[in-house]
Amino acid sequence: MNRGVPQQHPSPIGDSFAVHLTATPLRRLRKLHGAVLLSAGLLAGMIFTGVAVAAPATVGLGTAASYSVLAGSTVTNTGPTTMFGDLGLAPGSSVTGAPHVLGQTHVDDAVAIEAKLNLTTAYNAAASRPTEGSAGTDLAGQRFTPGVRTASGALLLSAGSVVLDAQGDPNAVFIFQIGSTLITGSNTSVQLVNGAQACNVFWQVGSSATLGTGTRFVGTIMAADTITANTAATIHGRLLAQTAAVNMDTNTITRSNCPSSESGLGGGAETTTSEEESALQAAIVQGEALTTTDTTVGASAPAVTVAAATTTATTPVVPATVSAAQAAARRAAAQRAARRRAARRRAAAARRRRHHAAITRRTQARPPSPNVRGAFTG
Asked: What's the whole-model pTM score?
């Protein structure tokens, strides 16, 4: 016995583990190592993918959701403007120009004051969302997927259009955080594709917003100061100004309501009537004529002016440059498009219901897991 060296007592667990490692072929160890790495990689991929595709929640407008126009100081109008939602003003009390309001009108009353408080809450909520990228300085020609985009200063839509692509998700939310002004050029447009809904598009504007002549705009503008919609601009959404005026000129403002507009919880299809679709299409035709030059005489003045319009506020102006048959055909096309969109929304809702039902059936059919607490399987 070697008295100079302390005796080592073998560990059964350690010896068995050592024997197991010794007896394990190198190929099995490599497979085990690869499986561990693969599992870790898949788990990390799932985590980071979930973060990357997380969509922003919609912005809850509260009682402000029912308003086509909500202002702080004054509301002014020129020409036959029609709004399908409510008109609100607080704390100001001056509404001039007699816009045609198909909803309710609240001027410096408790209802308007509450809507203004809800607007402030929604504005701050949209402004505080973490950004997911830059909106640039000019929206012209750009295509955005759902998310929050930021412009540190002014944001311009100089020409053409900007496309908002929902990628098949009808609940996709688009939020634009704009540091100062939002300005659109004449005859520009915001286009919704692949299931995008106007009720889930929000423009949080740090100062003032100006929509150019004939602009076809989509979404809710929440501006800190003034909002101006120039001649024949159409808005499928809302003009909500916190402190200053909303100024209009021969505009059509259709509602963009969905069940999530007030609560902010998301979900639901947009509710736009065929009357709104027809009025919007007729207003677009009018806007195109107002910015079309008279090439027959080489003049640069608009083909139709507001002063020459003789229709009432309830009837959209159909320019002389467009025949009655053409206007009727375009309205019919707009109605068909509205029906197609409604059918797509119903189909998407049916798919979601079937998917949830399938998950429920699989869950109910799955056998209960055995109680393995305290058990060890080697």
From this structure: 0.63
